[in-house]
């Protein structure tokens, strides 16, 4: 007995004419099991269109870059730009920059504000026509024996043979001035100052010195700004963006 | 075209883009025959030298109860608006230190603020993705709540920075975590132009800062987490005029150089850079000496002549004053007497360039200016 063909002329009784389905001549076991049709494969139009859009953007970027390369061929070298910068700066006066030491013009209308700063009782150390004034008499103010960086007079209240520390509460650490109360927090970046931070914070690893306070919960969902990895900070933007403090807050 | 064909085209196009970018970078390197510091040293420029009392803190503005995130000066009359984690905008008289307004914000998570050119309105934005405008002539209720006079809604991410177009009270530009900048018409509250976005050529990550040219208000610069800065013409939003590469981390802050043909940037990679907008050249890198990790730059400002670059860093209270010509740090405001006690998050110069205001996580603002006359013995 041949298997019924699909569609129209199937042998046997199924769906044929009056539907004598109960023909006992066909045993159920000889019928193929019902096979429901698989759903049709719809093309992934959305994904295809997005891909096409990305390709279009890249091809547009190619056009921009080719235009930029052509533009750069005719561009002047950097030295000419540097000259323009230098000429501009030199040609314009600047109220923030010390002029001549002897005849100082008033610093526009901010001068009256700052004048009182020097009227306080202060101690001045002068060394070869350079003067600095301090509220407290510095320990090492001595023009002849000043051993500070750059041969300047000490402008703080702490001085060692290695460096001058401008902060009253500082200490010299590995040749640098460090203002951290805890010397272990000093990182010896010896360019006039130290940064006060434990290395583990800077390396963005989990650290006990991160101090995010995550008490406040905001009820609407923000897209959180750039995240600083920190042991107690997290951004959960499902329904609650619970810690905007991830961004340097 | 099938998806597989498209994917192949995508791969080919990506390789072409990378090759072209490499060619462009090589060609630009060939044109970098010097930088500003080497040029100026060769010209024999005298270094800037500050004495201990040359730049002093003249005013400390106290009133915020949280970290200060942003500040802006008026273009005249020396008022300052500041935005803080305490959810308030405060308007200060910089000369008397008095607060003229304390505005309680509907959204406490504010990130930026700006004065309108006529000084009668302030704008702010933050994590609510909205730029809100407040009129300073409105009456506040007993809580300090001032009605919002206009809300500029449309960004799909936080508003990181806002600035009014110079001399145009009706237009301002915002930057956002949604990778776009928007030029707004404040009178209607509608977008005039969108710069960047999903299917436009623009930044590919959060935009953190904008700076509009004072000499050509149609030009503005944006800085982004994609490590680039971009120059835009507000009349042609379809693509950036130029993209400036070089930084190796988020560009947190951008500011035009006083001549309008250059701009400075500050980045997470610890450097500030000076770029030329007409040629695209990177003219100078300002990198602090020393070992250790690079400390991100949070904010920058140029003095009126451009000779000084003020840069706040995300470490302690460091605020370096750079000699832009010789590429050297000439002062650290963090080491001055009466300096901030925490990170400096924002700074700005007064309209006449005589005073610098710094805002800090210590909740204070400070004004710095010259220490007056100095007797020479």
TrEMBL record, chain A:
Residues 51-120 form the G protein gamma domain. Transmembrane segments: none annotated. It comes from the Eukaryota. Residues 1-45 are annotated as: Disordered. InterPro entries: G-protein_gamma-like_dom, GG3-like. Residues 1-20 have a biased composition (Gly residues). Residues 30-42 have a biased composition (Pro residues). This is Guanine nucleotide-binding protein subunit gamma 3.
Automatic annotation (TrEMBL), chain B:
Pfam families: WD40_Gbeta (PF25391). PROSITE patterns: WD_REPEATS_1, WD_REPEATS_2, WD_REPEATS_REGION. WD repeats lie at residues 61-102, 152-194, 200-242, 244-285, 337-368. The gene is LOC104721348. Belongs to the WD repeat G protein beta family. It comes from the Eukaryota. This is Guanine nucleotide-binding protein subunit beta. Keywords: Repeat, Transducer, WD repeat.
């Amino acid at each position: 007995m041949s298997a019924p063909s699909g569609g129209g002329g199937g042998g046997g009784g199924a769906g044929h004419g009056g539907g004598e389905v109960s023909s006992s001549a066909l045993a159920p076991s000889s019928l193929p099991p019902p096979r429901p049709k698989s759903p049709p494969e719809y093309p992934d139009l959305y994904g295809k269109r997005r891909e096409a859009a990305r390709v279009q953007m890249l091809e547009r970027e190619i056009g921009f870059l080719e235009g930029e390369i052509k533009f750069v061929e005719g561009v002047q070298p950097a030295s000419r730009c540097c000259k323009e910068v230098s000429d501009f700066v030199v040609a314009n006066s600047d109220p923030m920059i010390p002029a001549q030491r002897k005849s100082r013009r008033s610093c526009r209308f901010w001068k009256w504000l700052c004048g009182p700063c020097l009227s306080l009782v202060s101690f001045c150390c002068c060394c070869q026509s350079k003067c600095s004034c301090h509220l407290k008499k510095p320990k090492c103010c001595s023009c002849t024996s000043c051993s500070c960086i750059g041969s300047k007079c000490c402008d703080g209240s702490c001085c060692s043979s290695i460096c001058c520390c401008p902060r009253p509460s500082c200490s010299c650490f590995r040749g640098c001035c460090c203002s951290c109360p805890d010397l272990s927090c000093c990182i010896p970046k010896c360019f006039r100052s130290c940064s006060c931070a434990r290395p583990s914070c800077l390396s963005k690893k989990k650290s006990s010195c991160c101090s995010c306070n995550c008490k406040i919960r905001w009820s609407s969902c923000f897209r959180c700004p750039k995240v600083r990895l920190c042991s107690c900070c997290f951004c959960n933007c499902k329904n609650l963006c619970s810690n905007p403090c991830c961004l340097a807050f | 075209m099938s998806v597989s064909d498209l994917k192949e085209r995508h791969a080919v196009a990506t390789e072409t883009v990378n090759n072209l970018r490499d060619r462009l970078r090589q060609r630009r390197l060939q044109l970098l025959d010097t930088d500003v510091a080497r040029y100026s040293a060769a010209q024999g420029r005298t270094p800037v030298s500050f004495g201990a009392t040359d730049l002093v803190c003249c005013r400390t503005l106290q009133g915020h109860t949280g970290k200060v995130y942003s500040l802006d000066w008026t273009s005249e009359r020396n008022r300052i608006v500041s935005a803080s984690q305490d959810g308030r905008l405060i308007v200060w008289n910089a000369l008397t230190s008095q607060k003229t307004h304390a505005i309680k914000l509907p959204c406490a998570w504010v990130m930026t603020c700006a004065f309108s050119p006529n000084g009668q309105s302030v704008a702010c934005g933050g994590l609510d993705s909205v730029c809100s405008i407040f009129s300073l002539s409105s009456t506040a209720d007993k809580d300090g709540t001032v009605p919002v006079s206009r809300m500029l809604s449309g960004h799909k991410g936080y508003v990181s920075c806002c600035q009014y177009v110079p001399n145009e009270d009706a237009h301002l530009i915002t930057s956002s975590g949604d990778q776009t900048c928007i030029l707004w018409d404040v009178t209607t509250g509608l977008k005039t132009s969108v710069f960047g976005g999903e299917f436009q050529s623009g930044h590919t990550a959060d935009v953190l800062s904008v700076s509009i040219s004072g000499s050509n208000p149609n030009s503005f610069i944006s800085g982004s987490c994609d490590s680039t800065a971009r120059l835009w013409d507000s009349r042609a939003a379809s693509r950036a005029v130029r993209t400036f590469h070089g930084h190796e981390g988020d560009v947190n802050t951008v500011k035009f150089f006083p001549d309008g043909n250059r701009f400075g940037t500050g980045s997470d990679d610890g450097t500030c850079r000076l770029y030329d907008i007409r040629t695209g050249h990177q003219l100078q890198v300002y990198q602090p000496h020393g070992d250790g990790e690079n400390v991100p730059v949070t904010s920058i400002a140029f003095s009126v002549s451009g000779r000084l670059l003020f840069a706040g860093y995300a470490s302690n209270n460091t605020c370096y004053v750079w000699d832009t010509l010789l590429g050297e740090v000439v002062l650290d405001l963090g080491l001055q007497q009466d300096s901030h006690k925490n990170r400096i998050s924002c700074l700005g110069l007064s309209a006449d360039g005589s005073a610098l205001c710094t805002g800090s996580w210590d909740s204070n603002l400070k004004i710095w200016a010259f220490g007056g006359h100095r007797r020479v013995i």
